[in-house]
Amino acid sequence: MTGTDSPAEEKPAKEQNQGLARSLFRVSLPRWRGSRYSLSRLFFNFYLLAMGSFVAIAFTADFVISTAQRGITDDYARRFMRGTITLIEDELFRHPRREWQRRIGEIDDKFSYSLGIVERISLDRTLTPAQVNKLDAGDIAIDHDGDIMYHRLGTSSQVLVVGPLASSRNPELTDRLPLELRLRLLTWSLIGVIFAIALWFWIRPVWRDLEALRQTARDLGDGHFDSRSPAARTQLFAPLSDTMNSMADRIRQLLATHRELSCGISHELRTPIARMRFALEMLTETDERAERERLWAMMEADLDELDQLIDTSLTYARFEREAPEPHFSSVKFAEWLTDEVDSVRLLGRQLAVTVDTTRLPDHLHIDLDRKAMPYALRNLLRNAFKYASKHISVNAEMVGEDIRINVDDDGIGIPPEEREHVFSAFTRLDRSRDRSTGGYGLGLAIARRVLELHGGTATADASPLGGARFTLTWKAHQ
């Protein structure tokens, strides 16, 4: 059968294709050929990034909220401490002013925070102008930096100092961590541990998917095109895994097509080239005009055959390499079908070619690609012209929402076991080995690619005329 080569001929082409693919992958994926992904490094990188970002956001939010609520907090602190400060002030006013320092020392021993008395003038550099105004107005001024409250004692020049209020600023409590700090440490420790556990259970499937994708890419880069990425454990990498598998299928298909075309075309080129070489040798050895004209005609026929082979091969390669985007348009189907058959009717020589559209609805319009669909129909007709004895019938019908075209001939037919195989490229049945029917085994392959472009299919079956029936089926309205 034409288009088949011996294993010895296929092996160099296969090795060449795999070598080209390996080179492409090594250029595009250099970092995937290194060591395995480190789970611990991946975990710690994610953990430090996420936890650091979380802590930064938490502290920033705390600072913003504290700043925004400072006025509310100050008002609450004043109302909370006003009673205590008033009681201390009343106690001091019961004694002469010279005893205030002694008395404040006695009271200080009964509080967990410091109490003291300073001169008003000494606070000008400590407090802000706004705080000084509050102090002079008889209100409580709060120094946030030192966490200290100031209150002027009546109309005197002395000021009561209460604080620092925070336990961390009191010397008597420095032997243990402040409660607030301990609570914060405990809270952040729990958050860190819980987050680490959650992140570990999330990062491990991600790491497995990354490692699987890395290994698959490495296998593909080494030319093992049967390798496929396993099903992703996380939805994050599921689309990437599917895309990589689709890419591997496409690469394998393209390499197979390349190998098939290379082997098939090289095989098909041998016969016309050999005939041309023989004709050229005969041409140099004869002086008879008639013989020279016959040899010239033979060479012209071989050149036409080579040109047709190249054109057909390029058409098949275009459909196989990358299916073009279909451009559907609505056509009046009965007229379109009749015109397409009439355009190739002359190739049928003395064959009777009939077109039957009586089973179609009146004024039926069908959606099709007016540039691609003629390839399919004409290739089926040319195939019928080769094998028909006397009669070829083309008929069309609607089956549900599909349009169907049947091309029947009264030739020798196709055995059931070969009816699917004939749509493979460079496939001709054994009875056509003598090349009396011509062709390269690409016409039916092109027809099927065109129908796949339309979302349909091309099939072969037995014909009511006794030969073969080829059927094109696709949706009538795209």
From TrEMBL:
Keyword Cell membrane tagged: yes
Domain HAMP: 204-256
Full protein name: histidine kinase
SUPFAM superfamilies the record matches: ATPase domain of HSP90 chaperone/DNA topoisomerase II/histidine kinase, Homodimeric domain of signal transducing histidine kinase
InterPro entries for this protein: 2C_sensor_his_kinase (IPR050980), HAMP_dom (IPR003660), HATPase_C_sf (IPR036890), HATPase_dom (IPR003594), His_kinase_dom (IPR005467), HisK_dim/P_dom (IPR003661), HisK_dim/P_sf (IPR036097), Sig_transdc_His_kin-like_C (IPR004358)
Reactions accelerated catalytically: ATP + protein L-histidine = ADP + protein N-phospho-L-histidine
Occurrences of domain Histidine kinase (ranges): 264-478
Recorded GO MF terms: ATP binding
Main location as per UniProt: membrane
Signal peptide positions on this chain: none
Enzyme class: transferase
Annotated compartments: Cell membrane
Superkingdom to which the source organism belongs: Bacteria
Family annotation (Pfam families): HATPase_c, HisKA
Membrane topology, from the record: Multi-pass membrane protein
Entry keyword set: ATP-binding, Cell membrane, Kinase, Membrane, Nucleotide-binding, Phosphoprotein, Transferase, Transmembrane, Transmembrane helix
Sequence intervals crossing the membrane: 42-65, 185-203
EC number: 2.7.13.3
Transmembrane listed as a keyword: yes
